[in-house]
From TrEMBL:
<dbReference type="InterPro" id="IPR050229">
    <property type="entry name" value="GlpE_sulfurtransferase"/>
</dbReference>
<dbReference type="Pfam" id="PF00581">
    <property type="entry name" value="Rhodanese"/>
</dbReference>
<feature type="domain" description="Rhodanese">
    <location>
        <begin position="15"/>
        <end position="103"/>
    </location>
</feature>
<dbReference type="InterPro" id="IPR036873">
    <property type="entry name" value="Rhodanese-like_dom_sf"/>
</dbReference>
<protein>
    <submittedName>
        <fullName>Rhodanese domain protein</fullName>
    </submittedName>
</protein>
<dbReference type="InterPro" id="IPR001763">
    <property type="entry name" value="Rhodanese-like_dom"/>
</dbReference>
Length: 105
């Protein structure tokens, strides 16, 4: 599984690369802190996979990187996605390494 660090994502977003962010946490978690993008809770991935692009890199985000890894495994093995990146350490890594003003939980 391909991963991207919080610092690498910051650089890519700063250079306005075409990237889709898919957050697989629950809505309550998304309200606490988020990077924007599409909120598709992990349990909804099978029926909402049509919202995930195949033509640009897609960074999949969760709290620490475990649920996003599960989502990526499903999407690659079952649906043939080849453009997915797991945010290593999840939104927590973003908050601690890139944006210390972001709420953590």
């Amino acid at each position: 599984m391909d991963e991207i660090t919080a610092e690498e994502l910051k650089v890519r977003l700063a250079h306005s690369s075409k990237i889709q962010i898919v957050d697989v946490r629950e809505p309550e978690e998304f309200e606490i802190c988020n990077l924007g993008g599409e909120l598709i809770p992990l349990a909804d991935i099978p029926k909402q996979s049509g919202r995930i692009r195949r033509d640009v890199p897609v960074v999949v985000v969760c709290h620490h990187g475990f649920r996003s890894a599960q989502a990526i495994n499903y999407l690659t093995q079952r649906l043939g996605f080849e453009n997915l990146l797991n945010l290593k350490g999840g939104i927590h890594a973003w908050a601690t390494q890139v944006d210390p003003s972001m709420a953590t939980y």
